[in-house]
Amino acid sequence: MIVGRDYDVAHGSRLAYRTAGGRHAETRLPGCIPERSPSSAPLRSLSVKTFLVAVAIVALTGCALGSSTVSDRPTEPEIQARTRAAVAASGAHTVSLRLVPPNRSYSLTVRVSHPARYLRYRVNRLLAVVNRLTKVQWNFEARSITVIGPHVRAFWYEQARTAGVERTHWNVRPALLGCIRRIDLGIEVDPYNAAPPCPT
Q1: Prediction pTM value
Q2: What is the domain extent for residue 123?
Q3: Is 171 a member of any domain?
Q4: Which of 5-14, 40-49, 187-196 shows the lowest mean pLDDT across its residues?
Q5: Within a domain: residue 189?
Q6: Mean pLDDT of all residues in the chain?
Q7: Residue 66 counted as domain residue
Q8: Domain for residue 185, yes or no?
Q9: What angle do CA 135, 138, 143 make, to 5 degrees?
Q10: Which DSSP string corresponds to the chain?
């Protein structure tokens, strides 16, 4: 059995995720990694003043599309090199890394010897670099990240944007759900703390 959720994000509207127990919602600003919101109302229901404040926050934090200048954007060889260096620094091994430039798709698969320990303690070292390359310096239309252990796939994440709508899917081995509560991918994991402790 695999645990996971599917997200449908309309830029500037509502993000909804599906679970076996029902349907919940979050909001998201364009070009930003989703953050949990106390309200499920779409942005279109906000007042003009609130909307303008939100736009200003996006501009100031630099999370909107195009926040990096052309000179700040790494080339394909640089993305390859920085990704592979970050994988090694996190204690993993690169299995595959596929790019379709300039920002069409990014797909990374890494192998680790101890998936639970890696997902809990080390994966965010890798994601700090990957997120900057693929969501800040470039805003890739599609990206996927897979972590495999000695025998099976431990974790998988995919994000794709089409016609202004972004969809996110992820799954994890059930025994490892507690290991990804703080994974830096903008996803909500185990909000009711029902998962068993991470087996590290």
Answers
A1: 0.69
A2: 3-180
A3: yes
A4: 5-14
A5: no
A6: 78
A7: yes
A8: no
A9: 55
A10: --EEEEEEEETTSEEEEEETTEEEEEE--TTS-----S----GGGS-HHHHHHHHHHHHHHT-STT-S-GGGSPPHHHHHHHHHHHHHHTT-EEEEEEEETTTTEEEEEEE-S-HHHIIIIIHHHHHHHHHIIIIIIS--SEEEEEEE-SSSEEEEEEEEEETTEEEEEEEE-GGGGGGGTT-SSS----TT--SPPP--
Structure tokens at 112: 């680790």
What is the number of residues in the chain?
Answer: 200
Domain count, the chain: 1
Residue 93: count other Cβ atoms within 10 Å of its Cβ.
13
Instruction: Please give the single-letter amino acid code of residue 106.
Output: Y
Residue with tokens 């596929």: 98
Calculate what percentage of the chain has a pLDDT beyond 70.
65
Cα–Cα distance measured from residue 11 to residue 40, given in angstroms and rounded to the nearest whole number: 14
Which residue type is seen at 73?
R
- Distance, in Å, from the CA atom of 136 to the CA atom of 12, rounded to the nearest integer, reads 18
User: Which residues make Cβ contacts (< 8 Å) with residue 55, sequence separation at least 6?
Assistant: none
Query: 119: which 2 tokens?
Result: 């997902």
